[in-house]
Design a protein that fits this description.
With 367 residues, the protein is of the alpha+beta class. It contains ten helices and twelve strands. The strands form three sheets. It has a five-stranded antiparallel β-sheet with strand order 2-1-5-4-3, sandwiched between helices. Strands 7-9-10-12-11 form a five-stranded mixed β-sheet, with helices on one face. The chain has a two-stranded antiparallel sheet with strand order 6-8. The structure holds adenosine-5'-triphosphate and magnesium ion (MG).
Length: 367
């Protein structure tokens, strides 16, 4: 073998090593989106090997994950043809129930001879960063809402108390009221009660209560909650508790409030009756690299057979003041999310419109 060939082979080997050492995913595609070259990191993001991906079509993989990714890719290609490079294009991937975010930088490789433009794209996993950013934004929003609503609620409480007292006075002093007056006085007191409850919820938001963390047996805590909650008669309750469900560390009262908000929503979603299934289980997770490193979770799910959530609303339901109900304030799930986050847990939702919704809490096991 000539010196030149040896040197070329060494260079190729060196480049291959460089690519496989990169923590970012790297993929080179031709004008038809066929994968010419791909590194280990990119393949493992899709749970695949290099052999599975090479010479296949990138769009096929993106399509399998989510149709939106294909649209984002086409947009990226369009931008590349005008600017030659593209920075920080966000791709959201849901794989094996894990949600991951990638920030993609791409450029056209003019030097390479191919039938059309060749694209080099570098995929950086920014899931953790995104979670931290989202958390910060949420906390910030929460703090502002808390402060504003706290002061507004305080000011509204006084006039409301006066209305309440006056209507009580009228109710007790006006003897032999005719039906219309009776109806209107009842309306006043009902609406005042409703406004009072809303203010109560807002005041709770603005309180910065100290949390009291303790060891919690999830099954016992849930059983107690379900007895105290007393569901309306038109709701059928199914309870499936796993005796292996691990203990967690959390604030008992806050946890109950989270369960209560989720159950209330389920009840509201089933005005004509239905079934609420409350389930617990131990979820086993093993660290892939160190297989003895175990990390188990307690999963608590509330599944209803109610109206379900529209696809376009699913990302909005944890936002402050998002509501589709006529009486709600859109704060219930925001509070739940905050409680879950402050107790090192997470919450996920799955729903199909018209079929029901399922909310699942996950908390790490306390050993
Ligand atoms: N189990 C469910 N089934 C169907 N939709 C749901 C369910 N849970 C929540 N949602 C949707 O999410 C929205 C937001 O819920 P959230 O609990 O934050 O507010 P709300 O119930 O409308 O008002 P609040 O809880 O403040 O009284 C609801 O209005 C509803 O559209
Ligand atoms: Mg609610």
């Amino acid at each position: 073998m000539s010196k030149q060939v040896v040197s070329k082979l060494q260079t190729i080997k060196f480049i291959e090593n460089l690519l496989s050492a990169s923590v970012d995913g790297i993929v080179v595609t031709d004008a038809n989106q066929e994968i010419i070259m791909v590194n280990k990191s990119f393949c493992s993001s899709f749970g695949l090997s290099n052999d599975d991906m090479i010479e296949t079509n990138l769009l096929e993989w993106l399509k399998r994950v989510d149709g939106n990714m294909v649209r984002t890719w086409f947009q990226l290609e369009k931008d590349l043809h005008t600017n030659n490079t593209c920075h920080d294009v966000e791709f959201k991937i849901i794989l094996q129930e894990r949600e991951a975010y990638f920030s993609v930088n791409a450029s056209l490789l003019d030097q390479i001879e191919c039938d059309g433009p060749v694209i080099l794209s570098i995929w950086r996993d920014v899931t953790k960063l995104k979670q931290i950013q989202d958390d910060l934004i949420r906390k910030e929003k929460f703090a502002v809402i808390g402060r504003v609503s706290g002061s507004i609620s305080h000011d509204i409480r006084h006039p409301l108390a006066t209305i309440k007292n006056s209507s009580y006075y009228l109710n007790t002093t006006l003897k032999d009221q005719d039906e219309k007056i009776k109806k209107h006085l009842k309306l006043i007191s009902d609406k005042v009660k409703q406004a009072d409850e809303m203010i109560e919820a807002l005041m709770r938001l603005s309180e910065t209560n100290e949390t009291k963390k303790e060891r919690i047996n999830i099954n016992e805590s849930l059983e107690q909650f379900l007895v105290e909650f007393s569901l309306p008669e038109h709701i059928n309750l199914k309870v499936e508790l796993d005796s292996e469900c691990p203990d967690i560390i959390a604030d008992h009262l806050l946890l109950r409030q989270a369960f209560s908000n989720i159950t209330l929503n389920a009840v509201h979603a089933m005005p004509d009756g239905g079934t609420l299934t409350v389930e617990t289980k131990r979820v086993r997770r093993r660290n892939e690299k160190e297989s003895d490193l175990k990390e188990d979770f307690a999963e608590i799910s509330f599944t209803d057979t109610g109206s379900g959530i529209k696809k376009e609303n699913i990302d909005k339901i944890f936002e402050p003041f998002f509501t589709t109900g006529s009486k709600g304030m859109g704060l219930g799930l925001l509070i739940v999310k905050d409680i879950v986050a402050s107790n090192h847990g997470s919450i996920t939702v799955e729903s199909e419109e018209g079929k029901g919704a399922s909310f699942a809490f996950n908390f790490p096991e306390i050993l």
